Request: fold
Amino acid sequence: MHKRVTKLGLLMGLVAVAITLSLSGDEQVAKNLGQVVNGKYSDFGPFVSADGKTLYFTSDRPSGIGGQDGWMSHKTAGQWIEPVDMGTPFNTQMNDGPDCLTADEQTMYFTGCNLPGGLGMCDIYVTTRDGDKWTEPKNLGKPINSRYTDANASISSDGKILYFVSTRPEGSLGGFDIWYSAKQDNGAWGDPKNLGPTINTEADEIFVFAHWDGVTLYFSSDGHGGFGGADIFRSQLGAMGWSPPLNLGPAVNSTDKDIYFTIPASGDLAYFSSNRSDTLGQEDLYVVPVPAFANVKGLTLVYGIVADIDTCAKPTIDPALKINVYDIKTCKPVEAVVRISDSKTDKEKFLAKTRPDGSYKVILTTGADYNINAYAKGYSFHSERFVVPTEQAYQEVEKNILLTPLKAGAVVVLHNVYFDFDRAVLRPESKAELNNLTRLMNDNPTLKIEIRGHTDSYGSDEYNIRLSRARAKSVLDYVVMEGKIDPDRLVSYGYGEHFPIATNDLDEGRQLNRRVEFKVLSR
Reply:
């Protein structure tokens, strides 16, 4: 029996009652991944990392630790290389294999059946990365797991919704249904809810994959009609709920059993498993070009390293902007917390710790305006604005973050403080940044700072001094009045155009010079 629960039989010749995607004759169809990845045994349950560079799957090939093991293959020069066993403690003598990963590849969910201490026949477990290894898996417990079968988990791109399948009878439409649970403010999972009759049927919905865009689900079902055995469908979340399932058509589905569907954030290739006639073993992994059946919404994968700016090699000078440019490879990495939120509402979109090497990775959807923040003990926070246009195609953006140690003389720019033109009244979207500053002051109760206002070189010196002084005072007033910080710990001053950090000959340089920052007076 598979590590993950699958249909017990194939339902052939079903009448298609769901919408089926039609294809022109020249569009590509699924292809077997070949003998480098597939073998003469069962290879199934693929999950591809968000960046499309690592493929995880389950196999019972005898070179593993025992039973069914989790394996992974890396893509090199466009080709998948020889898979390697994921090792202990993830793999055991029992049946093991990955269900899904978070976007940063730091947390993995998987299904374990008949394991000691389980609540039902199959339960969902979680493990986190510790360097190159995985920590001892933990049973998610109630309310995710029950005394029935709970399996095949899929985590949303923001880590806040967990989808899975279950045979629990309460609230079920029959057989295996797809359920979901929302993560609470305290980090616990809330009571699962049935996804409802648009998706679930009296038959089996045996697998679910939450796409990185946050609004699309792919799932396997034998209750919506189709080409034969379990078919793969797509549904999208809108104002009226989940859309009627769309059969992915003959580019993906066959008269056999097609399940375990996964797509990287780039949306170029999809992977799934099937037992169709051209398999090398009992089941194989297949690949299909995504444009053959779906117009995937553009996403942005942001990645980078958080490091200590004081440890970096001497910076070079950008010839155009005249600003310092640091080589991140020369800097000491910092284990930090990276938080991404909506720039207007400060609603949290992503929160995670970096790896020990300071690296992080996150998926952002299009048509949004974000704040990216990083925090680490002994350092000032870092923040900046990041806009993803509505029509942006898939892109990968490297965004390295340099943190400034909290010590006397350190200067930190408050990137997300905004004023209207020629005014010193704080705009509402400045609130999140000033709350960061308030939090820093509370976490370091002896910290004293000077809030400093600066302008570009436009206007008279007298005007620039007056405007920068008023803006610095507005920031001080907010931290004192709204943040309840002792006013004796802060002073403010306006320096006008006298301390530029970039050239005033370019618009981009002048924008950098128009800033509010703080200087540590004492700690």
